[in-house]
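Input record (one chain):
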Amino acid sequence: MHHWDVGLCEPAQKSYQLSHTKITLYSPRVSSRHMPARLQAAKLRGSGTKSCAILEVRALLYMIIEHFKSQDPVPVYRRFRDRGRLAPEGLRYVSSWVDEKLESCFQLMEAEDRKHLDEWIVNWNDLVEFEVFPVISSNEAAERISPRL
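The corresponding structure, as predicted from the sequence alone:
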């Protein structure tokens, strides 16, 4: 996640969804108690400066379940060994786990735009069947649900 001070004054918080990237602008007139905790400190650091708002850009996380075709991991691991992950710019590998039978992989990826993930899938869909789930962290889920508790 990236934070930038920008010279844009708005009367309140505004959020924009551009493809799969969320951009949130917070005016200095918005009380920090209405901001996510991770931005409160940034707002305090910006107090008394020329900056007028805090811009938050967040790449989305995806949990990908890969089912190796014919339950055969060998062609997948061979391609990975020979050609690497084949991930386009804008897609970042986070972590992965493979089931004990070596038939499926559970992979966490981060992308600024879903199109980067789709480009990567094209590189592997001859060997793998994919299930893709946009996910958030447990902390973010707790933050989202806390006003409803």
